[in-house]
Amino acid sequence: MTPDADDRAPYPTEDKAADFLHRVTPPANTHARTRRCGLYTVVEVLGEIDLATAAFLAEHLDAATARPDPDVLVDLRRVDFFDCSGLRVLCRAETRVRDRGGRLRIVSDAPRIRRLLRGAGLLDRFAPLSGIPGEDGHSP
Q1: What is the pLDDT of residue 138?
Q2: What are the backbone angles phi and psi of residue 137, rounded to the nearest 5°?
Q3: Helix, strand, or coil (residue 21)
């Protein structure tokens, strides 16, 4: 995947996120959960994100990016494995956020996530934060 790749391909949850009645935060699943932290919507990602599990993450990101001016943090600190399927979901979510006048940032202090982003040419698009601003003394 390149930064120029078409990351607007629909996922099964996109229609739900676009529908006003479905803008409610989806229930936590085994791979993602959403919470508020001050001004931010934090999507915590857990375990392994690959082709089989990327839709679980997409469900939460679709809801988090559905409203105007979203400020979304994707917390990857509890991820054991993350592949190009996860990158595709992140790219699509970041495009949706930009289209709505907001921003999406990732949180990770893992060297493997930084290497993955660098290898995919996405490190400039997703420069990782080491922690969530406002939590544990991290500045915004």
Answers
A1: 56
A2: 80, 10
A3: helix
* CB atoms near residue 7 (< 10 Å): 18
CA-CA-CA-CA torsion sign (53, 46, 40, 1): negative
Spatial separation of the C-alpha atoms in residues 41 and 121, rounded to whole Å: 26
Other Cβ atoms within 10 Å of 53 Cβ, number: 22
Helix (H) or strand (E) holding 25: none
Give the span between the Cα atoms of 80 and 46, in whole angstroms.
7
Cβ 47 vs Cβ 30: under 8 Å:
yes
User: Which is it for strands 40-49 and 32-37: parallel, antiparallel or unpaired?
Assistant: antiparallel
Reported as a single tens digit per residue, the pLDDT across 27-55 is 999 999 999 999 999 999 999 999 999 99
- β-bridge mates for residue 32, sequence order: 45
The string of pLDDT tens digits covering residues 76-100 is 999 999 999 999 999 999 999 999 9
